[in-house]
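Let us work through a complete example step by step.
Step 1: write down the sequence.
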Amino acid sequence: MTQTKVKREFAEQIERDYLQPFAAQQARPLAESRQQLIEQIKKLVEMPPIFTAENRRFTESELAAFIKDDGAVAITSLILTQLQDIDETLEAFLRYNDLLGKATLFFFRELLHNEPRAKTTLETLQREHLLVKIDQIKTTQDQLITRDDLERLEQRVRRLASTTPKPFGT
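Step 2: predict the structure and record it as tokens.
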């Protein structure tokens, strides 16, 4: 994926999955919310980095841990505790459905996709069926719920049919 395409897809997801529902939840116009958040984010960009780390290779277990979605909440909290004097609305937005943690993981994974060892680890996990994509789980869950709902409906219809009096002559 090109860097531009990744950024465009990310921006579309932010708009659809976070900004629109957040603005609705706050009962504020979308354009006003967008503008206020952009202004607050610009202030964050001007701040010095809050984390530094040594430049070293990750272990296989670290790479595998970064690929999973676990920990988005922890990442959100960790980053926000390091930021000082952040606008309440911006903080609420970044916490909304763990946006900050998920966004951090999203871009981190994009960086890892260019790392040959990470690619190999991901492919191995997928090949061994140790890594199941969240959307696959959700689809399966939805299918099971739908099937259960249909079975319950069929049972109700059978019960109604068995308890409904039959008209004369049938």
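Step 3: interpret the result. The chain has eight helices and no strands.
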